[in-house]
Amino acid sequence: MNIIFTGKINEGKTTALKNHYEKNQLGDGFISVKKMINDRVHSYISTRLSTKEEKVILVHEQFFSKDFLVAGKIGPYIINLLTLETIEKSIMKMIASQVEPIYLDEIGVLELKGYGYDYIFRKMIQSKLAFIISVREDLVDEVISKYQLKDVQTIHI
């Protein structure tokens, strides 16, 4: 069974993914934790669930100091190419090892345009292994349609 945790922005989708993993202790994958400086979002840190290894995946343009290769931009956030590639390689290894479920936080606007996690999410779907993802509630129907998802349970946070 595939699961989509959904809710509004800042409603706890990432926390739900983390809690689900910690409760069940099955599978592996990545969540993206928001790093704040005072009341402003500085960056998002990609955290591997099984190892707790952290790498910067997005940095707000105001804080970007050209210290990594850029994969693109979503809104004011600059995407770290090396972290994106690391996540893709890690998930490909999970697929090869039949790890399930595979967690991925989050599938959204970038993926709907064919960027970000689009490539690796398609590989996850093709593998037929169980996955657990997060999607903003206003994008759930579009994500389900674009990726032709079937046998998916939607859990609203």
CATH fold-level assignment: Rossmann fold
State the low-pLDDT regions, or none: none
Counted beta strands: 9
- In CATH, the homologous superfamily goes by the name P-loop containing nucleotide triphosphate hydrolases
Mean pLDDT: 96
Folded structure, characterized:
The protein is α/β, with parallel strands linked by helices and 157 residues long. The chain has one domain (2-156): P-loop containing nucleotide triphosphate hydrolases (Rossmann fold, 3-Layer(aba) Sandwich), CATH 3.40.50. 31% of the residues lie in helices and 36% in strands. The protein has five helices and nine strands; from the N terminus they run βαβββββαβααβαβ. The protein has helices at 13-24, 81-96, 109-112, 118-127, 140-146, and strands spanning 2-7, 28-37, 40-48, 54-60, 70-74, 77-80, 102-105, 131-136, 152-156. Strands 5-6-4-3-2-7-8-1-9 form a nine-stranded mixed β-sheet, sandwiched between helices. Helix 2 packs parallel to helix 4. The relative contact order is 0.24.
Please specify the SSE layout and strand pairing.
Layout: E1 2-7, H1 13-24, E2 28-37, E3 40-48, E4 54-60, E5 70-74, E6 77-80, H2 81-96, E7 102-105, H3 109-112, H4 118-127, E8 131-136, H5 140-146, E9 152-156
Parallel strand pairs: 1-8, 1-9, 2-7, 7-8
Antiparallel strand pairs: 2-3, 3-4, 4-6, 5-6
Helix pairs in contact: 2-4
